[in-house]
């Protein structure tokens, strides 16, 4: 299959959709503690952008990061084991939902500090290119991050030093409960343009549209161009965090949610497949996730004696806290 | 024997490590012209790719260094002003320090943060005179405060070669210290290893950074009355508890002189750990900045809130009187 294969894009959005739905079930059953920030509704963005990247390109995700990690190629079983805090997890149970990382597939981590990852990725891509690798990077962030100074500083550094980083703003309309119009003066694209960076607004609900925009940007960047920004307009189908399932927060009108959910990336991409092909992918995804859930639930929990293992790459053993 | 200044020792360590290891590079503000005089001559020797002047974007370039380290380089970030560490505390603690554990050991972040001219520079007032090494010890970032030119050289070399993030404070009060040094003996100084500068029998004085020189002067003045041992931890985290315990177990008395604010400063930790381990002959004492100190501008006021020789002398004498 080629990267433009609609089946491949469909499989990726469907996998993330069902992964998230299965994860929410596991939050409800108590198997996942601490809850998650579901990526439901935004799948087309991670999938479209990652379809435009090579395996050796780098990405960073957000606290709503399962989609980014999976779209870049992480194993769903090890990802799910991470959410369950098991030793077989991507981060050996040390990171959890908000810090899932798989450096082996170029994911420098979901990062739970809003606006922080852009500058980290800029440094990583700069360093790899200095070594002669023609890689590019893509950093995902929400509309809330565009008011973080750290991210605007990263725009400046990347543009100034022409570091090929694709800044991908997932504008889902809300920073937790704060609507964009209550938080963003000017425009998101205008921020990029102020640093001399090309900016495009795309329909984030259509994986193919996102892929085309990302591919064009990645081609320009790989050919020596500087960073670019894509603002992908999207809608978060579910809660900011699963705690909202228990605590109702009144900030989105039901009509608005219904309208938002009516443009579903899984349906949009699924509509491009023949029914039989779509059914085959759905069955394959369910089988993958059945196996992932089974693997994660059967995996051992970490030994509390090693709670601070990996704290220091040097192997330094920290003093413990007991008397 | 040639004289080596503390400042030149730092320059020499940077130059030696950059020559030895292609992955070492410097970034910071005004480092090409060497405004702090530590990077003098390095631009000419190593070129602009390895001596990277940054815009005034401390948060982004600190994270940029984290990214570069994740991609295999060994950045040294210079901060001209110690108070800038408050601005980048988030980037160092939340990202550089936490990545190894949060990723379950998938990565290392070998960054050195070099702070030439930490503490009071006399007349630089409230926002340029902090000495926040205890904060880094508290969060568990490797923290070095060399007192002498040879240790400045050796600890900076070790910091750059270290696999975890390291903050190296070069106190303004020590930057002009010169010593006779046989250059052939300059060598890496192990992290986590203290040093007895002067042997004594009656009391162990732990002195941090530039205060080592004050402690040695006081020890000399008191030589007729009290036999003072001067212990320089050199590394505040991880601390050489065994080395200090050995000293205090012999002398039975402890005085700490530390340029931190009193509450939660490293002196408190040193006293606590020693009394957990050693039955002392007299209660331990400490000489520090006052609680919550902000250094006032006027020179007499600046001096009044820094630990001084008179205070140290009095603390030693009171400790001897107590038992």
Write the layout of secondary structure elements.
The complex is a heterodimer of chains A (323) and B (323).
Chain A: H1 6-28, H2 43-51, E1 58-62, H3 66-71, H4 76-83, E2 107-111, H5 117-130, E3 137-142, H6 149-160, E4 165-171, E5 174-175, E6 178-179, H7 180-183, H8 188-194, E7 199-203, H9 207-222, E8 228-233, H10 254-261, H11 265-270, H12 275-298
Parallel strand pairs in A: 1-2, 1-3, 3-4, 4-8, 7-8
Antiparallel strand pairs in A: 5-6
Helix pairs in contact in A: 1-2, 1-12, 2-9, 4-12, 5-6
Chain B: E1 3-5, H1 6-20, E2 24-28, H2 42-46, E3 51-53, H3 58-70, E4 74-78, H4 84-97, H5 99-102, E5 112-118, H6 133-139, E6 142-144, H7 149-161, E7 166-171, E8 178-180, E9 195-198, E10 203-207, H8 211-221, E11 228-232, E12 235-237, H9 241-251, E13 254-261, H10 266-277, E14 285-289, H11 299-304, H12 309-322
Features:
heterodimer, A: 323 residues, alpha/beta, Rossmann fold, six-stranded parallel β-sheet, two-stranded antiparallel sheet, B: 323 residues, 2 domains, seven-stranded mixed β-sheet, five-stranded mixed β-sheet, 12 helices, 39% helix
